Amino acid sequence: MCVAVRVIPCLDVKDGRVVKGVNFQGLRDAGDPVELASRYDLQGADEITFLDVSASAEGRATMVEVVSRTAEQVFVPLTVGGGVRSVEDVDRLLRAGADKISVSTAAVARSELLAEVAQRFGSQVLVLSLDARRCPQGASTDSGYEVTTHGGTRSTGIDAVAWAVRAVGLGVGEVLLNSMDADGVADGFDTEMIDAVRREITVPLIASGGAGKPEDFAEAADHGADAVLAASVFHYGAMTVAQAKEALREAGHPVR
């Protein structure tokens, strides 16, 4: 039995507004998060992801309010991340209406957080948000990819594939693999990176970073992505969720 490939719009939220840039730089306003989430729900999105890109104390408070308002109007699963540093943060967002929580920088700093969240709430709510890039000149890892933190601004030297494997062992239920090199460039997903991670993990893999046309979604699924996530192409009208799903369907991938 084939599992449907999910199409997931991603809303990067800063100070209560959706923003988007290229490689996480040059952020510009893209609209109200609740309005956009409602639009994507109507378009047939399978899930919606919110990422708090400011991740300040005020940002997290704003995010709880955004999640609560969205959960009242949208009936697809909500994943929320950004600035999640503790089990208490996870509990607060789940109570606000989130279905899943993604963790990134805090897990790199203290990997035990992943096990703590999985043990208390279950692996089904825990997503590893893995911001990875090809190793810069003069640096190397076994896979050729490294983990970055703080929205892709800080290099860690940690092998991205090895980190994904370790996180799954700690209880992560899904891996959101975001190519920092491709983010916002709209030139296609990094399929080599998808291949490298897909070979080593068995949990669902969400491909992120680089969507520019409907066919890009099908290509990511061809390389083993269980879900495909995008932001700019949906926010600024380059395509709809339905067009992305049609491309997947035409390529032989089941969709909802």
UniProtKB/TrEMBL annotation:
Gene3D superfamilies with a match to the protein in the record: Aldolase class I
Reaction catalysed by this enzyme: 5-[(5-phospho-1-deoxy-D-ribulos-1-ylimino)methylamino]-1-(5-phospho-beta-D-ribosyl)imidazole-4-carboxamide + L-glutamine = D-erythro-1-(imidazol-4-yl)glycerol 3-phosphate + 5-amino-1-(5-phospho-beta-D-ribosyl)imidazole-4-carboxamide + L-glutamate + H(+)
Cellular compartment(s): Cytoplasm
Catalytic residues (positions): 12, 131
Keywords annotated in UniProt: Amino-acid biosynthesis, Cytoplasm, Histidine biosynthesis, Lyase
Classification via CDD domains: HisF
EC number(s) on file: 4.3.2.10
Chief location: cytoplasm
Pfam families: His_biosynth (PF00977)
Pathway this chain belongs to: Amino-acid biosynthesis; L-histidine biosynthesis; L-histidine from 5-phospho-alpha-D-ribose 1-diphosphate: step 5/9
Function summary: IGPS catalyzes the conversion of PRFAR and glutamine to IGP, AICAR and glutamate. The HisF subunit catalyzes the cyclization activity that produces IGP and AICAR from PRFAR using the ammonia provided by the HisH subunit.
Similarity comment text for this entry: Belongs to the HisA/HisF family.
HAMAP family: HisF (MF_01013)
Quaternary structure note: Heterodimer of HisH and HisF.
UniProt-recorded name of the protein: Imidazole glycerol phosphate synthase subunit HisF
Organism expressing this protein natively: Actinomyces lilanjuaniae
